[in-house]
Amino acid sequence: MANVFSNLILDVEDIERSLAFYNQLLELPVRSQQSVDGHRLAYLTTGQTEILLLQQPRHEQPPDFDRSGGLVIKFSVRNLPEVAKALKTKAVTVLRELDMANIGERTFLVADPDGYAVLLSEPVETVH
Predict the structure, then answer these.
(1) Domains and CATH numbers, the chain
(2) Distance between CA 50 and CA 6 in Å, rounded?
(3) If I label 70, which of 8, 9, 89, 115 is the partner at 20 to 30 A Cα–Cα?
(4) What is the pTM of this model?
């Protein structure tokens, strides 16, 4: 059996707020949206992986659900300093400031609207 990571499902409190983050700020394309029995779904694409944002009806949402429990979603981006600057102007919660490493990768860690950690990274160009 071939094991391929194909889909990430994020339980979100407010799908519109999450779409504003993932689609408008991070520019992930929305493949489709639907509503099924009070559940709102939005499918976003990033490379070969799909992200499903799932908003349960309010009465089914677990109270005090901590979405920050260790999951980190990592995206490779171009021009990370500009991306970080743009996110800060949108009042995105910064978990770890921009790290302008000289080798390896630059990183910037933020929280999405539900508290999921999102690591943005950019490889550092090395001169030989």
Answers:
(1) 1-59 (3.10.180.10), 67-128 (3.30.720.110)
(2) 6
(3) 89
(4) 0.79
